[in-house]
Write a structure and sequence with these properties.
12 helices; Heat Shock Protein 90; alpha+beta; elongated; eight-stranded mixed beta sheet
Amino acid sequence: MSILTIRTHVGRDILQSAQSFKTPEAAIWEYVVNSLQYVDSGLTPTVNVALDPRAKTVTIRDNGGGMDLEGLTHFFTMHGENQERRRGVPGRGKFGTGKSAAFGIGTALTVETVRDQVRQKVYVDRSMIEAADGDAVTVRFDVQNEPAPEAPNGTEITITGITAKLAREPVVSLIERHLSAFRTSSPNVSVNGRTCEISHISAATTRNFQPKPGKQSELLGNITLTVSTSLKPLDETSRGIAVTVGTGNLVAVVTAGIEAKEYGNRLFGEVDVPALDDAKYDPVAAYGNNRDLTLNPAHPVALALISFIGASLEEARAELVAAGRQAREQAEAQRLKATTSAIENLLNADLATMRERLNSMGNIRQRSPLPAAAGGSEDDGSATVNPDGEVDGRREGVLGGHHEAEEPPPGLPAGETEPNAHPGGALASPGAIPEPEGPEKIVPVRDKGTQRPQGGLTVKSEHLGEDFDRSHWDKENRVITINLDHPVVIAARKVNDDESSFRRLCHEIAFTQYAIALADLQLERDSAMDASDAMFEVREALSRVWAGAASLYAV
């Protein structure tokens, strides 16, 4: 009976595998990572990469363990599993395609290596591969078993006939992206003298996640996913979860699409998942040999891992969103307070200049007798204004509400009260606090926590609803409230001008409310005023306060 076998053409296999390495950086990393992984105990891995665009060559030199004849034979075996994987140590070398990487970007490969003071040097080029009969490709020995008593262990890889553009920065970027998996060994890698830095991102917060009990845990095993958050957005090479299968074997970087969402580009972390290399799932591979750092969702473990990472990243992102919202609200509250405080200072400064004029007018509805011209007696002028802005026998300030005078008890003349009926005077309230020295003054009772300049007014902002007016004047408590829900206020806040439009609108709203309140008070105190007088007072008040707010329009 005839025997039918499956055969492969080695030369074509090499060139086909080479297509996985389409860029210089991908091919170079394939040799750099071998140098980092195979280092003698006690040594810090050191790799120097030299790019020569004019000569169209790349050289990778390391201080690794080097190779003897047996090691070289294994190196040039297509799809050969590396020796550490044979011993059950998870790591690289699953596909055994590293030797073909050079032919993805060049036409020839030279390997010079020293192991235990014995030197080997071999050469193979594309023409030799294409000329092979298919069973094997003969590699030329330039040096074989040469004594090298002074030479340390190490290997030098030289790729010549480079057909792609050589540039340092893409190579450095890719190496730095992968170096985080080797941070424990602190390797030294340089490209044309430029040291590749291991990315050390400052973590604002860090959380650990474990798979859920059940199917997810059974597939992924006892693993720990670490998710950290950065204080600032990360570039594409730094964000996402680095997935390894054994120390230094970075197989994928998973973002689960979270980078496109708010704060998603601030998340990074790592997880080691040995189950990705479990042979029971062969021939389906969890990741490919093209070094594109993606997982294969057709693999059961890879699919479970993608889901696990995505849910964990979303949970961490939600916490960032909540914290960011709270921080924005606090910052917004501070900005609003700064705006209303500035308005408040302007209005109280104007109010101070108006205080004496308003007090001299008297309050017709409360206590002032009719002017002599109207048939009453002359004002004795006994009411005085103290420096703190309080009027003896009256409520503090000039914009507060008034109290109607009580009818005198039977038998007492109008305008008089029973002796000591109210120690603070005819208009004293139950909350009056007599001053121990000088004329007694009235201080109205306030709610706890209220802060207002003595004798002045307060400006604040609140959400009063879109159907409410732009502002509200609380006469009793002397508070002007700007409605943040009014459509024009909302529109002003959306203008992208560092809130200049919003601040100006707040001033305009508060100034207008103040001017109307001031005119209303004057009408209340002077019955001789008419509407035209009130309009004049409104215009005058607006002119005064706006004069003090010129800086709002300074360029």
